[in-house]
Amino acid sequence: MTETASRRTLHITTWGCQMNVYDSGRMADVLRPLGYQQVATQDADMVILNTCHIRERASEKLFSELGRLRALKESRGGAMMIAVAGCVAQAEGAEIIARAPHVDLVVGSQAYYRLPELIAEIEAKRRAVIDTDFPAAQKFDLLPEDQASQGPIAFLAIQEGCDKFCTFCVVPYTRGAEASRPAAAILAEARRLVAGGAREIALLGQNVNAWHGKAPDGSTWNLARLLAELADIDGLARLRYTTSHPRDMDAALIASHRDNPKLMPFLHLPVQSGSDAVLARMNRRHDADLFRRIVGELRAARPDIALSSDFIVGFPGETDADFAATMQLVRETGFALAYSFKYSRRPGTPAADAADQIDEAVKDARLQELQAVLRDQQHGFNRAQVGRSFEVLFTGTGRHPGQSAGRSPYLQPVVVNDADIVPGTLHTVKIVQSNPNSLMASLIQEQIAA
Length: 450
Ligand code: 5AD
Ligand code: SF4
Fold this sequence. Notes:
This protein is an alpha/beta fold. The protein has helices at residues 18-31, 58-75, 86-92, 94-99, 115-125, 171-174, 183-195, 223-231, 251-259, 276-281, 288-301, 320-333, 360-383, and strands spanning 8-14, 36-38, 46-51, 81-85, 105-107, 129-131, 153-157, 159-160, 179-180, 200-204, 212-214, 220-222, 238-242, 266-268, 306-313, 337-342, 389-397, 404-407, 413-416, 426-434, 439-443. It is built from 13 helices and 21 strands. Helix 8 runs parallel beside helix 9 (251-259), helix 9 (251-259) packs parallel to helix 11 (288-301) and helix 12 runs parallel beside helix 13 (360-383). The chain starts with 7 loop residues before the first strand and ends in a 7-residue tail after the last strand. The structure holds 5'-deoxyadenosine and iron/sulfur cluster (SF4).
């Protein structure tokens, strides 16, 4: 790879999901060969704001940050490049430059592999550039192979986009149609990540369990098969995948939770609502009973599996009875972790135009009621770990001096009072105390062999 003589500086601010975090890392990988090194915002020649459009306040947040950057850019006589990337860039395109003319570049979530050309174009023509195209080929396979190490826990995008068209969701519009990367490219990237220090890989996709990729022999693999192949990589200890849709939890994937020893006993499976009427209007293509059945099958396959989910309250037309059905589903399922949101009208999505929008006050009350139960369940799940022993993958230091921290198989942060644990090593620990969001443990085994 050619190094330019000049050192250029870059800062990327990331909002939103794990896919955005991955994309930001890949943007840095694309720019590194041009000499860009990452620094704090105030020292950067180029600032990229990688945005999220999934819920409200994304564009407010963007324009307030752009206001701050404008002052910084002016204080430098204009010598600073400002780029807006991600889903707001994809959704709003030229609107962003109309509202904030100091923005130099708007680059959609599919186009950032072209950043070097786009920067050259801005420098040559001295005018703003907008690129929100969807390339014919998949962007992931147009990105450079060289990646900065992500450390012991790495993310790997295997799928992008979504064809489900839930009526509340912008993803099918901002990320495009569902597309799966070929298996060979994924396996090669996974091997590179492991060579770079990854012990755990989380496969990413907006609808990751819909992945069906071309296999090296020309056939098509499902996610269960891909996970089995990934499990053969020496030095890789753990696998996860996120985010899944209930309709794509096939029997083979459920069986992987029993048969694949590297697949961690944790699954994020958004259900959104416990009411069939609401699920139908959300166009979720599943009812509450399908979710119950899948949970039953997962627990039969892997009795200790911990479940996580997403919920939306106050979807248009949601009645007290609909909300009660959600509360019922939560109580009977039991979640180790969950994310819950008030419905937010997203321009361009079908539900945004529904007549029966719910009052903010009702949404607030329902959200509080739901979150109180979900919080209790999370704390209860953490408390239930006290006295248990399991393997922890250590990733670095804890918050206080003398501590090391890592992740449990169930994704909880685990902290031990021992400063000498090498990041990337696995150790058996015994849980001695639970906190709402983390566990304290003592080491009971020095190190588990790779
Ligand atoms: N309003 C509220 N929550 C939403 N989500 C997606 N779109 C919306 C919206 N318009 C939530 C869903 C999804 C998670 C990533 O964000 O719960 O699973
Ligand atoms: Fe959005 Fe997920 Fe529904 Fe796809 S499946 S439209 S990403 S909520």
